[in-house]
Fold this sequence. Notes:
Helices cover 44% and strands 17% of the residues.
Amino acid sequence: MDLERKTVAVNHPEKHGRARILKISDKLAAMIKRLPKKNIKVFGNVTASSTCSTYYNQRRRAAAKLENPRLLQITFHTIRHWKATIEYQRTKDILHVMKLLGHRSIQNTLIYTQLVNFESDQYHSATAEATEEAEELIEAGFGYVCTHNHIMLFRKRK
């Protein structure tokens, strides 16, 4: 982990995946820096099995406290699927997602994205007559469509 560059190196991924370097947010880097430094490792000498055990115990407690048994279905792999799906929706770049996940085969990456339809056929529409109005619409997430009779037309997915 390089907190100055805000990166995490995955040197020995499971299932013979590709080693890779992942960027982390400024907020996460700051949170990790604030942790007590008792060991060279960020989380001390914990094992994968003890981490899993702690996660499953906390998940069970949260499900009971919130009376939501669906929480018991969330696994580490569920979170990985969610991240891949969100990243694909954001970039529409399957090769980027493949690299992020460390897959050697595109077929493995397609499993994460093939069932997701992010597009909607419904739009909010808006018009602008002046440049200032157009700027406000663009800042609000509207996309320019065309100009008709000196009126700019914009749309944004619902």
